[in-house]
TrEMBL record:
Keywords: Cytoplasm, Lyase, Pyridoxal phosphate, Transferase
The protein's name in its UniProt record: Selenocysteine lyase
Cofactors demanded by this protein: pyridoxal 5'-phosphate
Domain of life, source organism: Eukaryota
Functional summary from the UniProt entry: Catalyzes the decomposition of L-selenocysteine to L-alanine and elemental selenium.
SUPFAM superfamilies: PLP-dependent transferases
Organism encoding this protein: Oriolus oriolus
Assembly and interaction partners: Homodimer.
Lineage: Eukaryota, Metazoa, Chordata, Craniata, Vertebrata
Length: 382
């Protein structure tokens, strides 16, 4: 793996083979083709690349038509990761794109398909909807959305309107449930290695990059990754990502069943330890499916803000929301507020995630740690 994959010597050829094998492994995991996989530094870069591509493709599709639709417009949800939300907000400030953030339904926790479709305009070039939310675990109706947009694109083509591309950030879903790009019908899908026990690297699935589906580079250089993402490849990380993908392909059903069992046990133990009246599960939405590993809950009571509870825990390692937002202090999660969770409940929220190796004994220790933390806080307030 130490050779430069672009070199012709034996070590370079071996590195190139490792990258090719990893590409095949990721494609197999997703039900796609190896040529549809482009390696990136992570999910943030992949998401930004999709947004960049959609805007550029919009402008290129307007050239020579004599019927310009003006500024590109992108539709997304109100609960997306910051690597989707912040680029769109920045493009809006610069006057380079318009964005609509569709609120999720407090009934389902989902961005409803009809609401997303209603936000599409003549100048819409991209719809980006995460496959599963990172805080609530709610799974979004991406397959239905793709199908409906496919039908819409046929009508738009007849009217001379730009194609609406479809992207999903699948960071949270891979390794915890079935992810098949043929079933989802998306043009782009973001892959994040560390979310399924791989290294901190990512990839972007593109349905026929540069042919069936546009893809424009944000970087220019040596021509690696077919010039879509130039820069000397990080062969060890890419190879590790491929190995993690192989494990998911072979074992995802067993992983999912184990994590769901342990997560359900966790929720039962929380209710048994604190009482049903004191525990509010923030990710239980009637009729919506959710990830097998995620438990977002609040322990009700004054002075029991999530961050304060965690600060009094001795063994539990957890977050009040998304780990990449951990510096935002005691402000309640905007995602929970968007889902209709009351302010006083959202302030007390904790997010616990179980993994492949989490056992019921680990849950017992974590819940006992929470119990002693709450007891200590209540004694301090007395």
């Amino acid at each position: 793996a130490g050779g430069n994959p672009s070199s012709s010597h034996p070590t370079g050829r071996k590195a190139k083979e490792l990258i090719g094998s990893a590409r095949e492994s990721l494609a197999r995991m997703l039900g796609g083709r190896p040529e549809d996989i482009v390696f990136t530094s992570g999910g943030t870069e992949a998401n930004n690349m999709v947004i960049h591509t959609a805007c550029r493709h919009f402008h290129e599709s307007q050239c020579g038509t004599g019927d310009s639709q003006g500024t590109p417009h992108i539709v997304t949800s109100s609960v997306e990761h910051d690597s989707v939300r912040l680029p769109l907000e920045q493009l809006g400030r610069e006057g380079l794109a318009e964005a609509t953030f569709v609120p999720v339904s407090p009934r389902s926790g989902q961005a409803e398909v009809d609401d997303v479709l209603a936000a599409i305009r003549p100048n819409t070039c991209l719809v980006s909807l995460m496959l599963a939310n990172n805080e609530t675990g709610v799974i979004m109706p991406v397959a239905e959305l793709s199908q409906r947009i496919g039908a819409l694109n046929q009508r738009r083509a007849a009217e001379g309107l730009p194609r609406v591309l479809v992207h999903t950030d699948a960071a949270q879903m891979i390794g915890k449930g079935r992810v098949d790009v043929q079933e989802l019908g998306v043009d782009y899908l973001t892959i994040v290695g560390h979310k399924f026990h791989g290294p901190r690297i990512g990839a972007l699935y593109v349905r026929g990059p540069g042919t069936a589906t546009p893809l424009h580079p944000m970087l220019f250089g040596g021509g690696q990754e077919r010039s879509f993402r130039p820069g000397t490849e990080n062969t060890p990380m890419v190879a590790g990502l491929g190995q993690a993908a192989e494990l998911v392909s072979k074992n995802w059903e067993a992983y999912e069943a184990h994590m769901r069992d342990v997560r359900d046990y966790l929720e039962a133990m929380l209710e048994a330890s604190f009482g049903k009246q004191r525990i509010c599960f923030n990710s239980h939405f009637k009729g919506s499916k959710r990830l097998c590993n995620t438990c977002n809950f609040s322990i009700l009571g004054p002075g029991l803000q999530g961050r304060r509870v965690l600060a009094h825990c001795k063994v539990l390692l957890a977050s009040v929301g998304a780990a990449c937002h951990s510096e935002k202090g005691d402000r309640p999660s905007p995602v929970l507020l968007s889902c209709g969770i009351p302010l006083e409940v959202a302030r007390n929220a904790l997010r616990l995630s179980v993994g492949r190796g989490t056992a019921r004994a680990d849950v017992d220790r974590a819940v006992q740690d929470l119990v002693q933390a709450v007891e200590q806080l209540e004694r301090d307030q007395a």
